[in-house]
Automatic annotation (TrEMBL):
SUPFAM superfamilies: FAD-linked reductases, C-terminal domain, FAD/NAD(P)-binding domain. Pfam families: FAD_binding-like, FAD_binding_3. Signal peptide: none annotated. InterPro entries: DHP_3-monooxygenase, DhpH_subs-bd, FAD-bd, FAD/NAD-bd_sf. This is 2-polyprenyl-6-methoxyphenol hydroxylase-like FAD-dependent oxidoreductase. Residues 7-158 form the FAD-binding domain. One of its GO terms (molecular function) is FAD binding. Gene3D superfamilies: 3.30.9.60, FAD/NAD(P)-binding domain. Residues 166-292 form the 2,6-dihydroxypyridine 3-monooxygenase substrate binding domain.
Length: 371
C-alpha cells in the first residue's frame, strides 16, 4: 500500500518514529505538534531496547544507540547513605534529546508543524479529517494519534470517553548538570542507585548531556522520587505557581516555590544523604502523576493510535519508547504488506493491543508496592 496521505497528531518520539518510517515508504506524511518551541530539551535518558534498535536500523540511525552513559552496577542504599546491596548489572542510558533531534532531522520543516494544536479528529466513508484549534481543517487517508496520555484522538478510535486512571502516586523529578552534583553524592556517579521505603522509593543515574555529551563532567544526573498522593489531593499537587491546574504533570519551573521547599525538606528528613543532596541541588524540580490506560482497540476506520495514546504504561518498565517504536514498526509493516487499509489496521490493532496489554500489566506489577 503506497501513496497514502497520512497526518500524525503528536510530534514526540512516537509520532516521529511513525513519520520517518512511513515517509521512507513513499507516503505523504505530516506531523502536527501542539507545542510552539518543539520538544528538544524535555527528555533525560532512556534504555535502548530491542524495538528501538530495530527502528534505528530501519531509518539508518543505529549510531544513536551507541551514544550513552554506562551505569556499571546497581546499588541499594541504607538510610545512612551506605551501600546495603550491590549487583554487577551494567546498563546504558542513551540520550532522549539526541534521539529526538536525530529522528526529527528525517523530516522537512514543512512536514513537522509546531504550534498548531489539533482539537478533534473525525471520519466518514470518504476519509478522515483533522479539526484544528484555530478553526482550520485538513483531510487525510489515515490519521495516527501519537499525542500521548492526553490524547485528543483516542476517543475517535474507542468510541467512548477514555480517561486515564490515576495510580495513586507521583514521581518527583530532577535533572542536574553533573558538575552540580554535590560531593556528598559522589557515590551515586556511574551507578544506578535505589533507596526503598514503604510505598515509596528513590532512584537515580547519570544520563548524557543535552547534546548527547558522554564525557565525565558534561553529563547530567537524573533522579526520581516516587511518593503517594491521594486522588483528592492531586489537583492541588498539579497546580502551578500561577494557580493553573495541569492534568498530568508540572514541567520544570512551574512548581510553586513553597512546594519545592517542602520537597527538599522532606528529602533531608526521609532520604539517605546522597539522595537528599541531589534533590537539594535541583533548582527546578518537576512532577509527573502516574496513570494507567489500556485501549480496547488501537484502530477504527481510518484512525489509529500509537504509543501512550493507546497504552499508558508505568515508567518503572522503562519500555515507553520501545513500545512506541514497536507500534511504529508494526504499523509500517502491515501497511506495506496488506493491500487494504482496513485489513492492515485490524492486524495492527490486534498485534499491538496484545503487546501493550502485556507491558501495562508488567508496569502495574512493578508499581504495586507504591499504591
Amino acid at each position: 500500500m503506497a501513496g497514502l496521505r497520512i497526518r500524525i497528531v503528536g510530534g514526540s518520539l512516537g509520532g516521529l518514529f511513525a513519520a520517518a518510517l512511513l515517509r521512507q515508504d513513499g507516503h505523504d506524511v505530516r506531523v502536527y505538534e501542539r507545542s510552539i518551541g518543539g520538544l528538544g530539551g524535555r527528555g533525560a535518558g532512556l534504555v535502548s531496547q530491542r524495538e528501538l534498535f530495530a527502528l534505528l536500523r530501519a531509518v539508518g540511525c543505529e549510531h544513536v544507540a551507541h551514544i550513552g552513559v554506562v551505569a556499571r552496577e546497581r546499588i541499594f542504599l541504607d538510610r545512612d547513605g551506605g551501600i546495603a546491596e550491590r549487583h554487577a548489572t551494567p546498563q546504558t542510558q542513551i540520550s532522549w534529546d539526541h534521539l529526538y533531534r536525530t529522528i526529527r532531522e528525517k523530516l522537512r520543516d514543512d512536514d513537522y508543524r509546531l504550534g498548531r494544536p489539533v482539537r478533534a479528529v473525525f471520519q466518514d466513508a470518504d476519509g478522515a479529517r483533522l479539526s484544528f484549534a484555530d478553526g482550520g481543517q485538513e483531510e487525510a487517508d489515515l490519521v495516527i494519534g501519537a499525542d500521548g496520555l492526553g490524547s485528543v484522538v483516542r476517543e475517535a478510535v474507542t468510541g467512548v470517553p477514555s480517561p486515564n486512571s490515576y495510580a495513586g502516586y507521583v514521581a518527583w523529578r530532577g535533572l542536574i548538570p553533573e558538575d552540580r552534583v554535590p560531593p556528598e553524592a559522589a557515590l551515586l556517579r556511574d551507578r544506578f542507585a535505589f533507596y526503598m521505603m514503604p510505598r515509596s522509593h528513590a532512584l537515580g543515574y547519570l544520563v548524557p548531556g543535552p547534546s548527547g555529551e558522554t564525557a565525565a563532567g558534561a553529563r547530567r544526573y537524573n533522579w526520581v522520587w516516587y511518593r503517594p498522593v491521594p486522588a483528592a489531593a492531586l489537583p492541588a499537587t498539579l497546580t502551578d505557581a500561577d494557580g493553573r491546574f495541569h492534568p498530568h504533570s508540572l514541567a520544570p519551573g512551574l512548581l510553586p516555590a513553597p512546594v519545592a521547599d517542602t520537597l527538599r525538606a522532606d528529602a533531608a528528613r526521609l532520604l539517605p544523604p546522597p539522595f537528599a543532596a541531589v534533590v537539594a541541588a535541583e533548582p527546578r524540580p518537576f512532577i509527573q502523576a502516574i496513570f494507567d490506560y489500556e485501549a480496547p482497540v488501537m484502530a477504527a476506520g481510518r484512525i489509529a493510535l500509537l504509543g501512550d495514546a493507546a497504552f499508558v504504561v508505568r515508567p518503572h518498565t522503562a519500555m515507553g519508547v520501545a513500545k512506541a517504536a514497536g507500534d511504529a514498526l508494526a504499523l509500517r509493516r502491515y501497511l506495506a504488506e496488506t493491500p487494504h487499509l482496513a485489513d492492515a489496521l485490524a492486524l495492527y490493532s490486534h498485534d499491538r493491543c496484545t503487546a501493550g496489554s502485556a507491558i501495562a500489566a508488567y508496569g502495574r506489577r512493578l508499581g504495586a508496592a507504591l499504591e
